[in-house]
Amino acid sequence: MAGHSKWANIKRQKAVVDAKRGKTFTQLSRAIIVAARGGVPDPALNFQLRTAIDKAKAASIPNDNIERAIAKGAGTFGGENSSLEAIRYEGYGPGGVAILIEALTDNRNRTAADLRAAFSKNGGNLGETGCVSWMFDQKGVCVLEKVVDEEQLLEASLEGGAESYEMTEDEAAEVLTEIANLEILSQTLKDKGFKVTDAELRWIPSNNVEVIDPDQARSLLKLIDTLEGLDDVQNVTSNFEMAENLMALSIV
């Protein structure tokens, strides 16, 4: 998980560049559509939808766009997004690193072709379903900011049914729990005064691959960057570990 957490920190430094591509708007709008379709189109009664809306607002997506995405998911708006479906793809990156890709697409063939091209151009291979997913467990993750008392965090995490937590950097923390317990944990942490900036489902690797070769590191980071740059891709998760100086190769 350390490698993934460090990669998440690197990605935050690139958020401004990603937002300029308009990709954030596309990703978050699609997440709202799928959340609204998968449950009640009322954020008060749908935790996944409420979380997606909170992320959209944090990214300064206009309320009109949010309402439109909810309507599309509920089937009361129509349009080109009505056929979006969630699909998980799996593959290997340079050095045998396992990669999981979560996508929302209205055209499976297009998405698979785009992913296959991204892998092949950057030293990886798009695999069959199940080839790497056995190395990951899906968990609920609450991301916190401004954690000044770790003992208080431990007590609140235990009360909320958490499995573990990890302090990251700049007084930030990530608290893990079972998927079905995510909403309870999030609310418990908020009730205890913690600032929960995100509550999401995440694939956590059960084993990690250390990447030490600079060329492999550069190719791997470029592959992940390319995958995340595809419009249909929502999330990319991998099981690599890498020194900070190699990680910095991705910052351009």
Observed structural traits:
globular; alpha+beta; Arc Repressor Mutant, subunit A; 3 domains; Alpha-Beta Plaits; 4-stranded antiparallel β-sheet; disordered N terminus
Descriptive notes:
Belongs to the TACO1 family. GO terms for molecular function: DNA binding. The chain has helices spanning 2-13, 15-20, 23-38, 47-58, 63-74, 108-121, 150-159, 182-191, 214-228, 244-247, and strands at 85-92, 98-105, 125-126, 136-145, 164-167, 173-177, 195-205, 209-211, 233-238, 240-242. The chain is globular. With 252 residues, it is of the alpha+beta class. The model is unreliable at 1-7 and 12-17 (pLDDT under 50).
Q: Looking at this structure, what is the CATH superfamily of the largest domain? A: YebC, transcriptional regulation domain
The CATH class of the largest domain:
Alpha Beta
Overall pLDDT metric: 84
Largest sheet: 4 strands, antiparallel
- The N- and C-terminal alpha carbons lie at a distance of 24 Å
Q: Order of strands across the widest beta sheet?
A: 3-1-2-9
Going by CATH, the architecture of the largest domain would be 2-Layer Sandwich
Oligomer: single chain
Detail the topology: elements first, then pairings.
Blueprint: H1 2-13, H2 15-20, H3 23-38, H4 47-58, H5 63-74, E1 85-92, E2 98-105, H6 108-121, E3 125-126, E4 136-145, H7 150-159, E5 164-167, E6 173-177, H8 182-191, E7 195-205, E8 209-211, H9 214-228, E9 233-238, E10 240-242, H10 244-247
Parallel strand pairs: 8-10
Antiparallel strand pairs: 1-2, 1-3, 2-9, 4-6, 4-7, 5-6
Helix pairs in contact: 3-4, 3-5
Pfam family, one: Transcrip_reg
Family: Belongs to the TACO1 family.
GO molecular function, one term: DNA binding
